[in-house]
Amino acid sequence: SCSYQKFASCYHCFYKLQPQLTRSIYDQFISQLQSSVKEEIQEVKSEGNLEGLFDLLDKIVEEAKDREEPAWRPSGIPEQDVHSALVPYLLKHRSYLRQVLREKEEENRKVAESVLAGRNKIVELQQLIQAHRQAWQ
């Protein structure tokens, strides 16, 4: 859209009089336009921290390449979306809680056994004391 032919046709009278000058003006115009656009792009990049964001986006893309399962996308039905997001987490948490429960039950079983052993020891000691007392009497 910025061809020299279009530029020359816009300034047809001037082009007829001095075609080399028209070409020089066109070249300067294009060069200044390009530098202006580059400055604007650089300013937008620096204001929005786009380089950092693009680096982050590149990192995310690289990480996604190694992923085997597809990325999560919302279905448009909030109940399903919440369900699909929460159920795996809740199942994992339930598995963890069951493991903790098994450990605590095992710990409680061992403590109960030691309490019973202690009670049996107390009963034996009471019987021994009773036997000694009767022997002294």
UniProtKB/TrEMBL annotation:
Keywords attached to this entry: Cell cycle, Cell division, Centromere, Chromosome, Kinetochore, Mitosis, Nucleus
InterPro entries: PMF1/Nnf1 (IPR007128)
A Pfam family per the record: Nnf1
GO cellular component, one term: nucleus
Main localisation: nucleus
Subcellular location(s) per record: Chromosome, Centromere, Kinetochore; Nucleus
Transmembrane among keywords: no
Keyword Nucleus: yes
TM spans (from-to): none
UniProt-listed GO biological process terms: cell division; chromosome segregation
Protein known as: PMF1 factor
Gene from which the chain derives: Pmf1
The organism of origin for this protein: Sclerurus mexicanus (tawny-throated leaftosser)
